[in-house]
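Origin recognition complex subunit 5
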Amino acid sequence: MAAQRQHLGYEDEKLQRVMERLPCRDVQASMLLALMGEPEQCSYPSIFIYGHRATGKSHVIHTLLKELELPYATVSCVECVSVGLLFEQVLLSLFGSDSASLLSRNPSLSDFVRVYKQLCVQASAKQTRYVVLDRAELLRDMEANLLPAFLRLQELVEDNVTVILLSEIVWDKFRPNTGCFEPLLLHFPDYSKGELQQILSEDSHPSYSPELYSAFINILLGVFYSVCRDLRELRHLAALNFSKFVEPLEQGKVKESDTHKLWRNIEPHLKKAMQTVYLREVSSVQWEQQLKMEEKEAGAVRGLSAHAHVELPYYSKFLLIAAYLASYNPARTDKRFFLKHHGKIKKTNFLKKHEKTSNHLLGPKPFPLDRLLAIFYSVVDSRVAPTASVFCQVS
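Tokens:
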């Protein structure tokens, strides 16, 4: 490892600090360092990093660029409502506050390339410059020549610059029909349960032992891991529910070693918290206040066993409804049930012999996955993106 670090041209202390800040992502970080090469080397023109939400893509690349003190520009494509704003942010980050004034009011791609070349002559850099485009899938909705141009920006501006695209979708969904320069692909897989345990356990509470917090994280993952793999969501849930977990300790009812009683105390609370997975309809404070009010009003119901009632995640309820409708209704009725403008319906008194029997007596029928999802998107009360969280609940 020491020989590899020396070959990369970076100080051992900086590389050690980088690896310490990137738990469970040392493989991806090492691969990125190998692709970037030494600071003075001409790097590869473009790198495409993809993976599900909260898999460490932005954190890894920003930590590398910041800790190694490399010149870079980070642009969120969500914030760029126009191409001109995208060009301005790149120039401002790389060349300073006066650089964006050289652009015209509605700059084109050729204007951006011309200004970039002009600024390179005035402020030449020995190190590779990096342009990081977060949520890069939004580039597909902008000008058709923008994505191919950024993929070969190094060639257009004649500068040692590498464009790094971060996205949640695969490269096949990006590739234009006319073809383009192919970037290097780097996949960030989902964190495993053990990796989530390791990362979340590092956020231990200063008032309690790391072993207690690690036991709490183990309980939390036991409840939520089957429906949620999102690190940020799990971290939010851990911060929200830890105070309830240690409540018996603060009252002096149990000891830290008695994890079974702590688990029995937190279990109903976690079941209720499962209703808010992936939702942000209320803040954390409002959620806590709501739970306290429910506990005061429903004192009689509190004695029921937590095992007698299992709360499902929000979207799982709609998936079950969609599965029920798909299994007990013929496919030909979907258009009539789930479309507003389904055309005229022919009235007929003729029924086949087997259709006179109730579908509930015949039992559920098999149905394809596409039909299940089509009904799900029809019955859910808001627009839902086909994300990994939905498919995880389907599986």
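The chain has three domains: 2-187, 193-308, 314-394.
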